[in-house]
Amino acid sequence: MIKALFLAGASIAVGTIAQAGDVMRMAVTTSFHNSGLAEVLLPAIQEDLDLEVQLLVVGTGQAIKLGEAGDVDAILVHSKGAEMKFLEGGYGTHRREIMYNDFVVIGPKADPAGIADDGSAAEALQDIAAAEAAFVSRGDDSGTHKKELSLWSSAGLDVATFGGWYNAVGAGMGAALNTASGMNGYILSDRASWLNFGNKGDLALLYAGDPVLFNQYAYLPVNPEKHPHVKHDLAISLEEWLTSDRAKELIDGYTINGETLFVFNAQQ
Amino acid sequence: MGDLWSGLTQAFWLVVTLDSELVEIALRSLQVTLGALVVASAIAMPMAAFLAVKRFRFRRPVIALLNALMGLPPVVVGLVVYVVLSRSGPLGALGLLFTPTAMVIAQVIIIVPLIASIAHQSIRDLWQEYHDLLISMNVSQRQKMQTLIWDARRALLTAALAGFGRAIGEVGAIMIVGGNIDHATRVLTTAIALETGKGDFALALALGFVLIGLAITVNLGIHWLGRTEREGRW
Amino acid sequence: MTQMFPVTLSGATARRQGQTLVGPVDLTLDGGGTCVVIGPNGSGKTTLLRLLHGAARLSTGRIDWACDTELAHRAQAFVFQSPVMLRRTVEENLAYPLRIKGEPKKAAHAKARDWAARVGLAGLLNRPAPVLSGGEQQKLALGRALISSPELLFLDEPCAALDGRSMRDIETILTEAKAQGTKLILSTHDMGQARRLADTVVFLLRGKVHEVADAKQFFDEPETAQAKAFLKGDIVE
Q: Which of A37, A196, B214, C158 sees the fewest Cβ atoms within 10 Å?
């Protein structure tokens, strides 16, 4: 009986090694994945290109790292500074803007800091800091985290001086939203993650619309000169597809609860 | 409370309707874990028998080390395996990162010390019992190990089940080395982490209940198989 | 057949943790029939048997078999005072010594069934050995020792905890084995058993050989006062 078990186990172990044919890997940010857009795009890509795109859903920091190590064939992220560095290091062949969505400030419905009628993102953040209302920061070096930090500094505030009301949780968007929901605090989120988030509790969307909150997604194929094994051809055909009219239609047409999330802005 | 209840009902429906995605990730969980278990047992059990019968200078330190490694943090194992298997790591050329094989490797590293430690304890006790007889029969070192492993098989099954339990519920390491890729490396535990991240606690709980159910079923199944053995009476 | 006899012990000593268990012993056994080792508890009977079988380490001195020591040990078997039961069935226990010598499974098991009948365990073939009674376990141990046809069989107090009937069964098996040419070296503190089985007697006292004699002579006219006292049932130190 033990021998039979062993054989069964061994055959299973061997089975796991088997792999599919036309496959490429792309690192994407949690915020992109949480939007649910991937579930619309991936089947269409599979259909049009006969290409299985395996997504590694990570923070921007790790996505860049994966690209640098050659563990993925392309990355789709939203942090221009980090992207430019990636290119300067020669890790990517080029950067192609695909689409943008926007960040929103979420907070308790009661809005103790009174940000709902503010005129700019900077003002909203200043109000939160002044009220010392609980604020949850991703704190994970992700694109969203970097955006938040740049917003604080453009509001003339230094995160390092903040007191106990500022909570850097070091977690992904969903986990951070869970934390904000748990402590009924403010948080900066991308709109898609917020709309798809299932545990809203007492939170509400309080501020949005300032152009500085726009969030540009860009596609960067990994440089085959650095990593000869990457599937550069597949990465390029995926890029062509992502900037095609078909993609434009799907991206612009994607809504949650009737709200449009992304705006296609690739140069065709 | 509401989440718990809807998690339970959702779990029930997922199982009853044999939800295809659930079946896929549950099977992958089983595949990866059983694969790791087979490989780990094939390493750990001879190792345990060897440590029981062979006297060598560093035997005690090795046993102590093995016991200490039972508490190996999976996240660290995952990270090390990741770095080694990464394209820019020493074994990068194999292209194993983000495959089920990488997950099996990480789990093997996590459960070998556990299985070997538990197995060593029972084999050592049996060896004390058998020592005089086997020595008197001029049994070779290899035959000693075979005899001990075979006759301690019921205790070794317990050791293997402990390994299975640790592996099937593990998330830290396989999340890192597997990448939680849909239709490729997503398993029950990483799916639970993902759904929790999306704030969909009901679905996360449902998957959790399925995971617990799976673990219990496999345990009972193996125990039942063990008991149907005729000699399995002591 | 190896020619292992005569065996000579010269200054053979076993010391453990500063205590001398046996020795120094100078003794030659020519392997004529059955040798019974007697002596009070703690006189070193078990250790002497183990030294001869190579299951205990000599501290000083030497033991020389007529043939190569390794070959001699291989042609011997040992039955322990409390039998070691493999966690297997009776049949598998009996087949075990043959299987480790590479005998095919079928032949080994046929012989095992044959030997089970010879030692009176035919009805218990599929019983797990560890659940047998003391007498049954000792018979199984005996069968398992004899199945590989040893030229010399050591028995360390084989009937120490057994009832009269089991003892008789075991002595019958031993007598048969002896008739087939197996030499026996057996320790006991049952003088009746010693009288029934012995051809030669070795009388141990405080780890040393106190007297070696032909059985009849030893029991009728022991040479030393201690042997006389021991046979009478007095306490001897």
A: B214
Give CA separation, B208 vs B14, B191, C140, in Å: 12, 9, 52
Distance from CA of C219 to the nearest CA of B (A): 32
Does a structural domain hold residue C62? Answer: yes
Beta bridge partners of A28: A57, A76
Which of A3, A6, A14, A16 to probe by mutation at the B interface, max B CB count within 10 Å?
A16
Q: What is the ipTM of this complex?
A: 0.86
Task: Judge whether A1 lies within some domain.
Answer: no
Residue C126 lies in a domain: no
Cβ contact (<8 Å) for B225 and A6? no
Q: Which domain holds residue A252?
A: 22-100+215-264
C residues 192-231 lying closer than 8 A (beta carbon) to B: none
- C100 and B230 in contact by Cβ < 8 A? no
Residues A123 and A225 in one domain: no
Shortest Cα distance, chain B CAs vs residue A119, angstroms: 30
What pLDDT, in 10s, does the model give residues B87-133?
888 888 888 888 999 999 999 999 999 999 999 999 999 999 999 99
Hey, which residues does A96 pair with through a beta bridge? A219
Residue B104 has its nearest CB partner, among A16, A174, A177, at A16
User: Does residue C146 belong to any structural domain of this protein?
Assistant: no
Neighbours of C154 (CB within 10 A): 27
CA–CA dist B102, B108 (Å, integer)? 10
Determine the structural domain holding residue C182 and report its residue range: 7-84+151-231
Reported pTM? 0.81
- A10 is a domain residue: no
Q: What is the CATH number of the domain that holds C188?
A: 3.40.50.300
Residues A31 and A95 grouped into a single domain:
yes
B36, B88, B200 ranked by CB distance to A70: nearest: B88
Cβ distance B234 to C128 less than 8 Å, yes or no, reads yes
Name the minimum distance, in Å, from the CA of B53 to any CA of chain A. Answer: 23
Q: Is residue C133, in this structure, part of any structural domain at all?
A: no
C19 has which bridge partners? Answer: C16
Encode pLDDT of A180-238 as tens digits: 988 899 999 988 888 888 888 899 999 998 889 998 999 999 999 999 999 999 999 99
Residue ranges of domains in chain B, CATH in brackets? 2-223 (1.10.3720.10)
Partner-chain contact C55 B132, CB within 8 Å: yes
Mutate to test the interface with A, among B156, B164, B182 (most CBs of A within 10 A): B182
Q: Are both A227 and A95 inside the same structural domain?
A: yes
- Asked if the structure places residue A14 within a domain, the reply is no
Domain count for chain C: 1
User: What are the helix (H) ranges across B57-182?
Assistant: 59-69, 74-85, 100-136, 141-151, 153-168, 172-178
CATH at A133: 3.40.190.10
**A242 and A167 part of one domain:** no
Partner B contacted by A1 (CB < 8 A): yes
Hey, what are A165's tokens?
């009301």
The reply to whether A38 and A122 lie within a common domain is no
